Amino acid sequence: MANFVLQVPSIIRLRSFTVSASSSSNGLGSSSGGGGGPVIVELPLDKIRRPLMRTRSNDASKVQQLMDSISEIGLQVPIDVLEVDGVYYGFSGCHRYEAHQRLGLPTIRCKVRRGTKETLR
To answer: What's the per-residue H, E or C state across the chain?
Structure first.
């Protein structure tokens, strides 16, 4: 099941509410790997492997701006995650991921695509 937050402007302030959707019983498309495209899900930060984390550093001011924005209005764009054999790999969204870590948030909204071990090479 994926959760989406839709914000609708009102005269005084923004109101938000949650809309839930599911593409299958497990929320990640078919187990055969065919058909279904990416789905949006909340994943625990500690379940996402970041293979590029060692090779790059994030812009501290951009991370701080994202922390301010996420605190105020929430994450607006999910990070892209590749799921291979039940393991999640994050290759984009490094600043958003670090902002969530520094805010102490346990999960992050992800656009999950299924892949194979060949995809990781």
So the answer is: CEEEEEEEECCCCEEEEEEEECCCCCCCCCCCCCCCCCEEEEEEHHHEECCCHHHCCCCHHHHHHHHHHHHHHCCCCCEEEEEECCEEEECCCHHHHHHHHHHCCCEEEEEEEECCHHHHC
Tell me the per-residue pLDDT of 70-111, one tens digit each, with 9 for 90 and over. Answer: 999 999 999 999 999 999 999 889 999 999 999 999 999 999
Residue entry with tokens 């989406």: 4
The structural architecture, per CATH, of the domain 39-119 is: Alpha-Beta Complex (3.90)
